[in-house]
Amino acid sequence: MATPQEVVASITRTLDLFRDPAAKEGQKAQFRTLASIVKTTAVTLATQDGRLVVNGAPVDGGTLLPRLELHSVQQIEIPADPPVAEVFDLLKALADQPGDENIASRLSGNGAKRITITMQTFHFAAPAPPPAAAAPSPPPQKSAREVSASAQVNPDADIPAIVREATGESIGFSPSTAATRSTHDLIAELQERPDGPQVGDLLAILGRQLETAMKAKRTTQALTIVAGIVRAEQQVSDATRRRQYSIALKRMYSKTLLEAIAEVANHPTDREDSLLVLRRAGEDGVEVLLDLLVAAPTIEERRGIFMALTGMKEGTDQLVHMLGHHQWFVVRNVAELAGELALNEAVPALAQQLEHEDERVRKAVALALSKIGSSAAAEPLRRALRDKSPEVRMQAAIGVGRKSSALAMTIVVAMEEEEDEAVERELILALGRIGSPSAVQALIKFAQPGGRVFGRKPSGLRVTAVEALRVAATPAAVGTLEGLTEDGDKQVRAAAQDAVGDLKRN
């Protein structure tokens, strides 16, 4: 029976592979491994006070804990021998980015009945209702002289416009009348004719509505206005017209606005519009989110900010600078973000944090370097594979993929030195994911019943080598697997037969 920590490691490894589109074979092999664990072991995963609890025992959550928190999952109950399809749907949902539908609803919609998911609940303050419009007072009676005089005056003269075009197309549009219309109607008209002659007036009116919304702290209305304008801007190709939008948005974008929008970026109904507006803000949007990341007091708030930042690539200099922050959790969160964004320019700063005194930081750094996977990340990864903590070494191995062929011999050497069996298993699987000739050659030697130079060779590790050869799936790997179908070890023989059958089917 698997220990709670082994369950966490298996789920984490499966999720990492599910998020790698190029790791189809690895996904299949690892999913079978996880399915064999839950076939005989009931598993309950729970997030409690920023910790991961498995079957009642606190464990090191690694990257699984923030993944559960990212999806607002409080608890998952997987009974022994669950339907394989339900397990697959659960892992696929966890590997995906959160959407409008939470994981519990998604699985329920797919017909899941055995796996139970409890979602965290969050309470958001409702936006203040807009003030009731005062009843219009009857127009004052005008004398004939006043009527004559007013006819000579532009009734829209008090309505500011960024650009006002007096063309025949604008007949029927009155800025003074438009000023009394709802935000929804104005945005709809703007998006229907984003390059029409009335654009300047619409932008000016929406700008005043935005000022009113911000003063009244109606963030949802403010977000609707700015997101609507950004979407209209995206439809315009003419440079002059786009400059018109750019000027209007520059006036609207303030730090107060960005901070207000960043704070609702994790709300499901506001997420899409918030990210759109923050991306349009570029580096200013990133700066606001990073400031909030530092100040966020709870894991829920940090999770929301992290999710918003993963959708943006601007302001990477600020992100790299944050890796030198004095608070460990900020460095950890930023390291995870750098890995998600595959920021090669963050490698030198990440490498420096391999000396961080907090193991949680070093684990995040090791995984980030693995996900970046560039040639620049190779040397820091070698250092991570020699870290004093087995958890850090495991994270470094988990992230290694096919683009890390330069690490093959480093991993072979690390296997020779590794004393922790769980880490050694991850190193073996890493060689399978690399799949280079030197990696496969090392696996072939490791899978054989004798002649190993690494010391004692337990059956379990030989079975892992068989799984790695299945993932590599090169001609040399397949030939070795065929030979192992008659191995004297029952476990190895069965694993090899299963691997050969699977490769023939595919």
Verbal overview:
The chain is mostly helical and 506 residues long. Among the domains are: 116 residues, no CATH class; 106 residues, no CATH class; 103 residues, Leucine-rich Repeat Variant. Helices cover 59% and strands 5% of the residues. The protein is built from 27 helices and five strands. It has a five-stranded antiparallel β-sheet with strand order 3-2-1-4-5. Helix 12 crosses helix 14, helix 24 packs parallel to helix 26 and helix 25 runs antiparallel to helix 26. It is elongated and about 90 Å long.
Topology, pairings included?
Blueprint: H1 4-18, H2 24-40, E1 43-48, E2 51-54, E3 57-59, H3 64-70, E4 73-78, H4 84-95, H5 103-109, E5 116-119, H6 144-150, H7 175-178, H8 183-192, H9 199-215, H10 219-234, H11 239-252, H12 255-263, H13 271-281, H14 283-295, H15 299-309, H16 316-322, H17 328-340, H18 347-352, H19 359-372, H20 378-384, H21 390-398, H22 408-417, H23 421-434, H24 437-447, H25 459-472, H26 475-484, H27 490-505
Antiparallel strand pairs: 1-2, 1-4, 2-3, 4-5
Helix pairs in contact: 1-2, 1-4, 2-25, 8-9, 8-10, 9-10, 9-11, 10-11, 10-13, 12-14, 13-14, 14-15, 14-16, 17-19, 19-20, 19-21, 21-23, 22-23, 23-24, 23-25, 24-25, 24-26, 25-26, 25-27, 26-27
